[in-house]
Design a protein that fits this description.
The complex is a heterodimer of chains A (121) and B (328). With 121 residues, chain A is mostly beta strands. Chain A has one helix at 5-16; strands at 22-26, 31-35, 42-47, 52-55, 71-72, 77-83, 86-91, 96-101, 108-109, 114-120. Chain B has helices at residues 34-44, 171-174, 198-206, 277-282, 296-325; strands spanning 2-4, 12-14, 52-55, 60-64, 68-74, 80-81, 84-85, 90-94, 99-102, 114-118, 152-153, 167-168, 178-179, 182-189, 209-215, 219-223, 238-239, 244-246, 254-256, 263-264, 268-272, 288-293. In chain B, 45% of the residues are buried. The chains are: A mainly beta (121), B alpha+beta (328).
Chain lengths: 121, 328
């Protein structure tokens, strides 16, 4: 059942008394949003800084450096670019999460190729 | 400057070894994984043979007393700088006060020794041309002994301005060597090889050998089908080097490692080639190893392959660091 207008006003009044900037309520019937839409996450594309082979995981590890959707702090490697024996990190520019990988593990990529869709907090 | 926080024994200062002193009865010592030490140094812009710290027992902790660039190679051991996880075979920058903690090595490619290189190398005096710890003679390295809690070591410089935050594909992946899915090393038959029974010679190459708990920097005692001489042998003591595989009366072979004594009297079955000593040096206790018969020419080619890998690392690191410091 959808919320009534009176219930919505109750939620808005309750929110006004808190420090919550943005509030989203999912029910089986609807999604209600209160507050500033600019508080929603923004996406950035992380690109290859060099020609190389894109690696989702460190070659010694089975697990990806940054599993999709898991929070990562700023500065953390979320992928690797292999150039011969060298491994260069693809770095999270700010805190956020990997939303999507845009190149396959082991794919040879060119300079500037999109590698990761990164969602900032 | 770093301060050791662990009493984990057997961590030692090592470089590429003390060559040229066997005639005085002084063994070579040096890093059990010389490729890991050399590669760590190259990532930092150090001389390839600068001294580092070999860490074989975990967990291990140290604190950086000042800012310092460092490289961690060898065993992948769940390293952390304060709470930040560190990638293996990678260069990092520590700030004064941060604690480096090494956990237990893991993974399908489990190795047994971590190598910590510091910018400018570990600053200990050179003795007979090397900074390696000579445990038998109690000289070289840090006071001629393994490190213990409270020891303070200086590094050459802080590596300021040197790019860090990159790594290498480990040589175990770049130059893999296995036989039937088991880690392997190449061996040259030695002087008394033909004095062993043909069945023993065959078993040596065709069976896996277990690395027993009686294995350390001095030597690895192996467990497998006993090697039987055709007739008992009594030899006078003679010079031996790291890699020599001796067969005592039990028939269970001993591979001499970096801290091997410079002479021995047991029959010599073979010699692990110089280029593969690092593979054995990283093989964990309890793991199994296979031996592959090789020739002098193949042994020289294997050494050249390792040298070429290091040369490529040096070239790629120079390109990367050059590009980074010219303002990219």
């Amino acid at each position: 059942m959808k919320k009534t207008d009176a219930q919505r006003e109750d939620i808005a009044r309750w929110l006004a008394g808190t420090d919550i900037g943005y509030f989203e309520l999912h029910t089986p019937f609807e999604t209600l949003r209160f507050g500033a839409p600019e508080a929603r996450p923004a996406a950035t594309t992380l690109r290859a800084g060099s020609v190389g082979v894109f690696r989702h995981a460190h070659p010694l590890h089975a697990a990806a450096l940054a599993p999709i959707g898991e929070p990562v702090p700023a500065g953390r490697a979320v992928g690797l670019l292999q150039i011969g024996p060298l491994l260069l990190p693809v770095i999270a520019p700010v805190a956020g999460r990997v939303a999507r990988r845009l190149a396959d593990d082991g794919a040879t990529v060119g300079f500037g190729a999109p590698l990761i869709e990164f969602q900032t907090n | 400057m770093i301060e050791i926080l662990s009493n984990a024994a057997l961590a030692t200062v090592q470089d590429l070894g003390r060559s040229g002193s066997l005639r005085w009865g002084v063994g070579t010592a040096g890093a059990m994984d010389d490729l890991a030490l050399a590669a760590g140094n190259l990532m930092l812009g150090n001389a390839v043979g600068a001294a580092g710290i070999e860490i074989p027992v975990f967990p291990f902790k140290l604190r950086f007393g000042a800012d310092c660039a460092f490289a961690l190679t060898g065993a992948d051991c769940d390293a952390r700088l304060d709470e930040r996880p560190l990638l293996p075979w990678w260069t990092h920058r520590a700030r004064a006060g941060e604690v480096l903690a090494l956990g237990v090595p893991k993974g399908p490619m489990r190795a047994s020794r971590a190598l910590l290189c510091l910018s400018g190398g570990v600053d200990v005096p050179e003795v007979l041309g090397s900074r390696s710890t000579q445990l038998r003679g109690a000289f070289g390295g840090f006071d001629g002994r393994a490190l213990k809690r409270g020891d303070v070591l200086r590094c050459g410089h802080d590596g300021h301005g040197r790019p860090t935050g990159f790594g290498l594909v480990p040589p175990a992946l770049a130059m893999p060597l296995q036989r039937d899915g088991i880690a392997a090393v190449r061996v040259l038959p030695a002087a008394e090889y033909l004095a062993f029974e043909p069945a023993s010679r065959e078993a040596f190459w065709n069976r896996a050998w277990k690395i027993t708990a009686q294995s350390d920097r001095y030597g690895y005692r192996l467990d497998g089908e006993a090697l039987r001489p055709i007739a008992p042998m009594e030899l006078l003591s003679h010079g031996i080097v790291p890699g020599v595989i001796q067969v005592p009366h039990s028939g269970q072979p001993i591979v001499q490692m970096r801290d091997a004594q410079p002479s021995g009297g047991y029959p010599k079955f073979g010699t692990v080639i110089e280029a593969d000593l690092w593979r054995l040096g990283q093989a964990p206790i309890g793991s199994r190893i296979r031996f592959i018969e090789t020739t002098w020419a193949q042994a020289v080619a294997a050494r050249d392959e390792a040298r070429q890998w290091l040369a490529k690392v040096e070239r790629m690191v120079a390109l990367h660091c050059g590009a980074r410091s010219s303002g990219r």
